[in-house]
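Researcher: Let's continue the batch. This sequence belongs to GTP:adenosylcobinamide-phosphate guanylyltransferase-like protein, and it's 196 residues. Same format as the previous ones, please.
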Amino acid sequence: MAGGKGSRMGGVEKPLVKIGDKYLIDHVLIPIINSNIEKIYVAVSPNTPKTRCYVNKTYKKTYKECVKPVNIIETSGKGYIEDLNEAMQYFSQPFLVVVSDIVNLTSKIINRIVDYFYLIKSKNPDIEALSVMIPKEIYPNPSLEFEGLVPAGINIVSPKYGEQKEEIFVINELLFNVNTRDDLIFAENLLNQKNK
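Model: Same format as before. Here are the structure tokens for GTP:adenosylcobinamide-phosphate guanylyltransferase-like protein:
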């Protein structure tokens, strides 16, 4: 999901905020490309025209020979839920949704999330969605919290409108979302520590 206004980042398209030697969207797309995910779509909007150009130029060219091309979905940019509902028409099976501002995502984590979803679905076929959460005690200054858990910005949803029967997957690793300039400083420090 890369169509939000990013208003708390000073008017810059948030997916193109640079952290380290990569843009935020690279910190998400590269692990997805290297995961077991088969088809990859980036939902952009009129709010993110530079992101659309960057993804088309970088990921179509760089991964041209790859069996996993990165495709663009155009959404209205009215809001996260509205954009997700518009993107839903491209899918006929449950699909992974990842926000474009997570800095320390890995392909291993993505594979664990997907494997967990299909494991619980095999035990309970009524499950339609999965919400990935992080314990509050390992997440610095969360902007959202539900009963001691912080949303990671990663979900699996079924291509149907309305409420879905959801399971929670708690991951005991810090997946950090960049929403403000202070978050940007924390994310840079987090990546510097990881790279040492």
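Researcher: Any comment?
Model: The mean pLDDT is 87.
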